[in-house]
């Protein structure tokens, strides 16, 4: 069974990738021997996903898969977008990011937005495939629930009629932007005879 090295150490992401790419063994990049950070200096989710997947694939000579995702708000002209994880100026401070988002939306009547995910897979021979997915909702005025991470406690999914912060993993995964992107990527791989 071939191995896909995921350019991530996030266990939930690895599990989601493994569920969709069952013909492969999926391991995190650290386990494969890739240590250190990858500078995400692209201007789109797709560019950042490609940067990460290429860095791992080229260094390790393996099949590498990466994603980049974030929250895009119509009233904020797409922000926080590619800066979602570091919206407040520090990477991964979910509480501060959520507080800043609520501040920015405090005078806005349009609270609609979407999570977008772009995924990229790179092969040792240089071939690449990309795909993306979105899930739509509105931002609530305060956090609800303890499930998920990031903006999930503020994001009310209009597709499942429930806040991601209280939705089960199964409910969220049914409309997940990352899941949609990964399934679209799997379809492209099947069309090319890879999966």
Automatic annotation (TrEMBL):
UniProt signal peptide: none
KW Metal-binding (keyword) present: yes
EC number, as in UniProt: 3.6.1.66
Cofactor: Mg(2+)
Binding residues for Mg(2+): 39, 68
GO MF terms held by the record: dITP diphosphatase activity; ITP diphosphatase activity; metal ion binding; nucleotide binding; ribonucleoside triphosphate phosphatase activity; XTP diphosphatase activity
Annotated InterPro entries: dITP/XTP_pyrophosphatase, ITPase-like_fam, RdgB/HAM1
Function: Pyrophosphatase that catalyzes the hydrolysis of nucleoside triphosphates to their monophosphate derivatives, with a high preference for the non-canonical purine nucleotides XTP (xanthosine triphosphate), dITP (deoxyinosine triphosphate) and ITP. Seems to function as a house-cleaning enzyme that removes non-canonical purine nucleotides from the nucleotide pool, thus preventing their incorporation into DNA/RNA and avoiding chromosomal lesions.
Name this protein carries in UniProt: dITP/XTP pyrophosphatase
Organism for this UniProt entry: Candidatus Borkfalkia ceftriaxoniphila
């Amino acid at each position: 069974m071939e191995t896909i090295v995921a350019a991530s150490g996030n266990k939930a992401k690895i599990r989601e990738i493994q569920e969709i790419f069952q013909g492969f063994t999926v391991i995190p990049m650290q386990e494969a021997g890739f240590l250190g950070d990858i500078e995400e200096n692209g201007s789109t989710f797709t560019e950042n996903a490609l940067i990460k997947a290429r860095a791992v694939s080229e260094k390790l000579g393996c099949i590498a898969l990466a994603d980049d995702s974030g929250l895009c708000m119509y009233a904020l002209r797409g922000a926080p977008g590619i800066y979602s994880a570091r919206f407040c100026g520090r990477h991964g401070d979910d509480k501060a990011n959520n507080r800043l988002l609520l501040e920015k939306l405090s005078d806005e009547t349009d609270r609609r937005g979407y999570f977008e995910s772009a995924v990229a897979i790179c092969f040792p021979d240089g071939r690449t495939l990309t795909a993306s997915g979105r899930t739509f909702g509105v931002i609530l005025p305060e956090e609800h629930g303890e499930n998920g991470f990031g903006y999930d406690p503020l994001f009310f999914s209009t597709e499942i009629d429930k806040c991601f912060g209280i939705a089960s993993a199964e409910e969220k995964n049914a409309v997940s932007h990352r899941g949609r992107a990964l399934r679209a990527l799997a379809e492209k791989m099947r069309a090319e005879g890879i999966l």
